[in-house]
Every structure is written in structure tokens, then in C-alpha cells.
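Figure 3 (text version): C-alpha cells given as input.
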């Protein structure tokens, strides 16, 4: 049942208590309650996703952030390598978590990513050959709502049979063919990819979006809602977990079986216990915050806030990784970009009305029109000097995301003109940041430092990404369409100018990971073992993007579902 207030709880003990109804939490809740003898409570800080138009309508995805009622309205600390700018850093605070507000692009990454996880954790269970089954269980390919043929644009054999619906755009934009034709004519410089879910994660492709029947497919719609009527599942929303409480005796390893929560900062705190496990799925910001509030973290840092350390794990909150992204703008010779839609309320309302009527039209597709995953040139001096941080030769350093209009990031949409945006991202970052506590008050946001652009390597990769974006639109298919560059990055000419402009333009692509990273059993670093159990404690598991040992060169929701599916299997085995 879906509960909105703790007073509706009929009991104070469940087999499993999952903290966070996000991408991972809902997938896990759905799988665990397949066993009718397991009782599960999910506690979620945010509100319901039901009926929120900005969540349901794919094209409106960017309207859910920043600073909205369905988002944690976090900001970063001043970013030293971005001219001390403070960035907004939203996460979903709603059923479905960030899978309810994300920009829908669905990529599982290369096989190499998972083979590397296996290497970094010493657990062959993370190899692609083992986790492939979990990818297949999490999502499936569906036709776009327009019903148009997608033959030659996707390979159905690379897809599974799971609940999350994945589809290609149903309403081709004027740039779709230009993107694909450029790839096919580029002699391998920008290789065409029939399907980025093939294991080879390189190439140029139309985006695959987590969209079914023209509507967002999130962990809430795909995993949770279909099973909400199970009698062994309760989901308590609008309730914030404030900490976990140790339930072991003084001489035993700490065991965090009691969860403390409250409706808001002034409300009375209550607790619920798990007879089997508490599972933290609060995401890459929420999970380390709750761990530290519960006395799990760096002993010295916790002490300065008056928190008694129960498990000294200095890596909690460290190793924050994310993909920096920024916008490259071009004037185009067109009257069909989505610029008109954003500027003219009557066009916008007509598109929305069409979506409301039958889930078709522009609004049934996500905001991206194409993606390109690329490697640095093989003679790159940055790789010679700093090494190659990718998982292997089929994994990208760079991503370009194309949009048929002005995608406003740090520069607002100009009042006139028609634009192409090529967003450039570093998907193999070597910068590492952190999440640390600002206060022992659970309602005070933590300090979030993605530490973007801190390494020369990341700067060189972004520079190359800008060059690729410029080169891409010089190809024949763009002749007569793309005109001159514009915007702060577009105006930069020399390498130094481009890097300087990047410091003013970079934002987050919203992919924080690795703040409770896995490491081998017995390692003196890391936060969880390869079975996702917290080191140095008894029976507390972490299941979300915070456990990634390293960030993949991919959008992160599909890898998160893979983690949740494997976790469900590990937990079922542990309690069979
Ligand atoms: C704006 C945006 C755009 C994105 N675009 C894409 C994209 O196009 N493609 C892609 O693959 N990925 C994208 N992502 C990233 C992707 O959505 C995340 O990587 C993924 O959802 C992570 O899953 P998770 O389970 O780790 O965390 P989340 O999905 O964030 O779930 C965590 C949940 O825990 C809850 N929670 C946190 N703290 C507490 C607490 N103290 N008490 C109770 N509940 C709590 C949160 O409210 C949330 O519901 C985007 C993310 C954002 C925010």
C-alpha cells in the first residue's frame, strides 16, 4: 500500500526496510516482494509522481529541475576549477527518485565497464557475462508511440524483457538524418552505431529513451506501481530517514536494523525495525549522508560534528564522480527547431494538448535528438601523458548530445534566432570529489563537491569534445543548415580560450556515483563489499549508484537497475 503518513503504518517491524524509492529502491522492492513470505517497507522523502505532467511528458523532462517540488534542491560548494561557480545539483525527491526526473537517455555502457567492476572488486559476479541477465531483466525495447518503423536504427537482439520501457524517438526532427548521415559518411571518424546496448558503447545513434507509449518509464511506473497492491509491500512517502540506529550489543559488530525517520525537521521522530536487513537506496548524495549521520564514516570528521563513530570508514562520501557537460551552440537556417515551442505559449499548448490526447507529437519524445560516444584520437597527448582512464577500447571518453534547439544550461535562450545545441561531456573523468556533512542535523543539506574539471586530463578531453562538435557539423549533411557558432564557448577560438570558456559553461549531467564504492573483501578502502554489505558491520546493504566502484562512460540509470537486479538476487539467496 502507498502510505503518506507514518500514522498509517500498521506495524513497526518488516523483514526488509528500504530507504529511498528511487531507481534502485523501487526495482529492489519489486523483486523482493515477488517472494510472498518477505515483508518490505520502503521509506521515501519525496511526494508521489502520479499526475505530475512534467514527469510524465518526456519532452518536459528539463522542467523538473532545478528548484522544484519534486527535487532535492541541492547546490554544490564553489567549484575551484570552474571559476568558483556554485552549481545547482538536483536529485529526484519523488517516487521513482531521479528516474522520475531524469532526461530519459538509456545506455547500459560497454561490457568492459562491468568487467572492470569485477576486477576492481575481485568479484567475477560483476562481470558482464554474469550481469547480462540483470540487464535483460530490467528493460525491454518497445515501439515509439507513433508506431513508425525503427528498422536499421536499433537492434532488438540487444534488448531484454524487463519492465522499464525503452524506445527510439517517434517523431523525427530535422536533425536526425543529418546526425546519422554524418556518421555514415565519416569514414569511421564518427562511427554509426546500430545499437549502443550491443556491448560496444562507441558510436553515433539516435537516443534510446526510457519512454513507453509516449510516456516516461521510471522505476515508479515500471517496477513499483504494478506491484503496489501486494500485501507484503508498504511504501511510506513524504517521510525522511534521519539515521540508522545500531541494534547490537557493545561487544558485537554494529548492526543497523532500526531506521529513524520523521515527516519534517520539527516533527516527532519514529522508528521501524527490520528483522532481516535495512537497505540504503538513497542515492549517491543521500546514502553517504545517512551513513555519516549514523556514525559510519571518517572518525575525525564525524567527531568534529559530535557524531560518535560506530564504523570508521573514511571512504564514505569520498570518490564522488560525475560527468561535466556544457553546451555548444550554432545558429541554424530553419524555422522548425524547438526554439519556437519554448518561446510561444500557443505552440507549446498545442503540443501539450496533442500529447494529452494520444501521447504523440514532439512532447512524446525526450529532449535529446542524437548521441555520440567517442574516444580521444589515438595519438592524443593527454592519454600519453596521463594514461587511459576508460574501461577499454569500446568505451568512450567523450559524449556529444544533440538537440534541435537552444538547450539552455548557463546561457538563457535568446529571444530570437533558431539554434542547434551540441552538448559536450567528459564521460571518463579523472577528477574526484566528495560529499561531506555540513551538520549533524539530517535536514541540513550536505556539502557536495563534484570537483569538476580539476584535472588537466578532463580539461583536454573537454577541449577535444568541443573540437569534435565543431568538426561534426562541418560535414556535408549540415551544409546550408548550420551557420556560425554562438554562445560563450562558441565564441572561443584558441585552446586556452575554449578551456577558459568551459570553466564558465560546465554544469552537471546529473550522474553522481561512487560515494559508497565497492571494494574487495578485506580491502582497507571502499565502503561496501562486492555483495553490497557495509564493511565492518552486520547486515546493512547499500544498493544504488553510490556503490559503483568507478563511474561508467554511460548514462547511469541503466547501470543502477543492473545493480538493483543483482542485489535482489544476492539478497534472495542470502535469505532463502
Ligand atoms: C535531472 C537529471 C537528469 C538525468 N538524466 C539522466 C539520463 O538522461 N539518463 C540516465 O541514465 N540517467 C540520468 N540521470 C541519472 C539517473 O537518474 C540516476 O543515476 C539514477 O536515478 C540513480 O539511482 P539511485 O537509485 O542511485 O538514486 P535516485 O534515483 O536518486 O533515488 C534515491 C531516492 O532516495 C530518496 N532519498 C534520499 N535521501 C533520503 C532520506 N534521507 N530519506 C528518505 N528518502 C531519501 C530520494 O528522494 C530518491 O527518491 C539524471 C538525473 C537527474 C537528477
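Below: residues designed for each position.
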Amino acid at each position: 500500500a502507498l502510505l503518506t503518513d507514518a500514522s498509517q503504518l500498521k506495524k513497526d517491524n518488516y523483514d526488509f526496510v528500504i530507504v529511498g524509492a528511487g531507481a534502485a529502491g523501487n526495482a529492489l522492492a519489486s523483486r523482493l516482494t515477488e517472494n510472498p513470505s518477505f515483508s518490505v517497507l520502503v521509506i521515501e522523502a519525496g511526494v508521489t509522481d502520479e499526475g505530475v505532467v512534467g514527469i510524465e511528458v518526456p519532452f518536459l523532462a528539463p522542467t523538473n529541475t532545478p528548484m522544484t517540488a519534486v527535487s532535492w534542491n541541492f547546490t554544490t560548494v564553489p567549484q575551484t576549477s570552474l571559476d568558483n561557480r556554485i552549481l545547482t545539483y538536483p536529485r529526484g525527491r519523488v517516487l521513482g527518485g531521479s528516474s522520475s526526473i531524469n532526461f530519459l537517455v538509456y545506455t547500459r555502457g560497454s561490457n568492459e565497464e562491468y568487467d572492470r567492476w569485477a576486477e576492481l572488486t575481485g568479484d567475477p559476479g560483476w562481470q558482464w557475462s554474469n550481469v547480462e541477465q540483470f540487464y535483460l531483466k530490467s528493460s525491454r525495447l518497445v515501439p515509439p508511440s507513433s508506431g513508425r518503423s525503427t528498422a536499421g536504427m536499433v537492434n532488438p537482439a540487444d534488448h531484454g524483457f524487463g519492465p522499464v520501457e525503452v524506445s527510439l524517438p517517434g517523431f523525427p526532427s530535422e536533425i536526425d538524418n543529418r546526425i546519422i548521415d554524418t556518421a555514415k559518411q565519416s569514414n569511421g571518424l564518427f562511427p554509426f552505431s546500430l545499437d549502443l546496448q550491443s556491448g560496444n558503447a562507441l558510436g553515433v545513434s539516435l537516443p534510446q529513451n526510457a519512454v513507453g507509449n509516449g510516456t516516461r518509464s521510471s522505476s515508479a511506473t515500471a517496477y513499483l506501481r504494478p506491484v503496489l497492491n501486494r500485501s507484503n509491500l508498504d511504501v511510506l512517502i513524504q517521510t525522511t530517514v534521519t539515521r540508522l540506529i545500531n541494534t547490537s550489543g557493545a561487544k558485537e559488530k554494529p548492526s543497523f536494523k532500526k531506521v529513524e525517520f520523521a515527516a519534517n525537521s520539527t516533527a516527532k521522530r519514529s522508528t521501524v525495525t527490520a528483522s532481516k536487513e535495512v537497505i540504503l537506496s538513497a542515492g549517491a548524495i543521500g546514502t553517504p549522508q545517512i551513513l555519516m549521520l549514523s556514525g559510519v564514516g571518517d572518525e575525525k570528521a564525524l567527531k568534529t560534528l559530535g557524531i560518535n563513530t560506530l564504523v570508521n570508514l573514511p571512504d564514505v562520501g569520498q570518490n564522488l564522480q560525475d560527468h561535466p557537460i556544457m553546451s555548444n551552440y550554432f545558429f541554424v537556417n530553419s524555422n522548425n527547431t524547438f526554439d519556437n515551442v519554448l518561446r510561444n505559449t500557443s505552440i507549446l499548448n498545442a503540443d501539450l494538448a496533442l500529447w494529452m490526447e494520444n501521447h504523440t507529437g514532439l512532447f512524446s519524445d525526450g529532449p535529446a535528438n542524437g548521441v555520440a560516444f567517442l574516444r580521444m584520437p589515438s595519438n592524443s597527448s593527454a592519454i600519453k601523458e596521463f594514461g587511459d582512464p576508460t574501461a577499454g577500447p569500446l568505451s568512450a571518453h567523450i559524449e556529444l548530445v544533440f538537440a534541435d534547439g537552444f538547450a539552455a544550461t548557463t546561457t538563457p535562450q535568446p529571444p530570437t534566432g533558431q539554434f542547434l545545441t551540441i552538448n559536450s561531456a567528459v564521460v571518463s573523468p579523472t577528477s574526484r570529489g566528495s560529499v561531506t556533512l555540513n551538520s549533524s542535523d539530517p535536514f541540513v543539506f550536505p556539502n557536495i563537491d563534484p570537483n569538476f574539471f580539476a584535472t588537466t586530463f578532463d580539461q583536454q578531453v573537454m577541449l577535444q569534445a568541443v573540437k569534435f562538435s565543431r568538426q561534426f557539423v562541418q560535414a556535408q549533411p549540415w551544409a546550408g543548415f548550420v551557420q556560425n557558432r554562438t554562445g560563450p564557448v562558441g565564441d572561443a577560438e584558441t585552446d586556452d580560450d575554449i578551456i577558459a570558456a568551459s570553466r564558465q559553461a560546465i554544469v552537471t549531467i546529473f550522474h553522481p556515483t561512487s560515494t559508497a564504492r565497492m571494494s574487495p573483501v578485506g580491502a582497507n578502502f571502499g565502503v561496501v563489499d562486492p555483495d553490497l554489505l557495509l564493511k565492518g558491520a552486520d547486515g546493512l546493504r547499500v544498493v544504488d549508484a553510490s556503490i559503483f566502484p568507478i563511474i561508467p562512460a554511460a548514462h547511469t540509470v541503466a547501470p543502477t537497475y543492473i545493480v538493483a537486479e543483482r542485489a535482489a538476487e544476492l539478497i534472495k539467496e542470502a535469505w532463502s
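The chain is about 25% helix and 20% strand.
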